[in-house]
Design goal:
With 208 residues, the protein is an alpha+beta fold. 34% of the residues lie in helices and 15% in strands. Mean pLDDT is 76; it is low at 144-150.
């Protein structure tokens, strides 16, 4: 029996494999890391998944929250706003709620003034919501001051008549009364303690 060394066997086996046709599956892709450096070969990064663009339609409605930047302060939400509405239409709806003319309103999104021709679709986020800041100029068409003026023109309230001054009572205590109080204290407390109590009473009464 002939003995074949390991090196000869490995070469014969590899030669046999090299003569066979290698078949790959249709989805086979070699690992770029195993290819090694090749001149002219550029590996491109994977392409991002394209975002699906919203299709504007009157059936899609947005929720727009508006808040004033300066007094008079107001804050409310415009629900059921079509994506096809423009900023100018938003100003008209705000004007109906605030009595400010539409021309006196500026709508800001993230610190930038929105043009009147911009649509709601370009303002709202993926959830169909947006928060706008409103800058006002001038005064409302029906200012609150008018209501205050009307209230001020009403008949003045009646001033209650002053009460007649009450007679001033003479509440001074003469010395004879103090002597009577001193005698009563001495009979109950003794001379030393009665003197201290009487002194406190006189000083307290003087402060009243």
């Amino acid at each position: 029996m002939t003995t074949v060394d390991e090196s000869t066997f490995a070469k014969a086996f590899l030669h046999l494999l090299g003569g066979q046709t290698l078949i790959h599956h249709d989805d086979y892709a070699p690992d770029p890391a195993s290819l090694g450096p090749r001149p002219g070969l550029v590996l491109l990064p994977p392409m991002p998944t394209p975002k699906r663009k919203r299709t504007p339609a009157t059936a899609i409605l947005a929720s727009i929250t508006v808040k004033s930047l300066r007094p008079p302060h107001f804050s409310f939400t415009l629900d059921d706003t079509p994506y096809t509405d423009t900023v100018l239409l938003l100003k008209s709806r705000i004007s109906e709620k605030t009595d400010f003319p539409a021309a006196a309103l500026k709508l800001l999104l993230k610190g930038k003034v929105l043009p009147d021709t911009k649509t709601v679709e370009g303002i709202v986020d993926a959830d169909g919501k947006a928060s706008l800041v409103v800058m006002t100029s001038g005064s409302p068409i029906t200012p609150v001051v008018a209501a205050a003026s009307a209230a001020g023109s009403a008949a003045p309230a009646e001033v209650p008549a002053s009460k007649p001054e009450e007679a001033v009572l003479d509440d001074t205590i003469d010395e004879s009364t103090w002597d009577t109080i001193s005698a009563a204290l001495m009979s109950k407390l003794g001379d030393a303690k009665a003197t201290k109590v009487l002194d406190r009473l006189r000083r307290g009464y003087a402060l009243v």
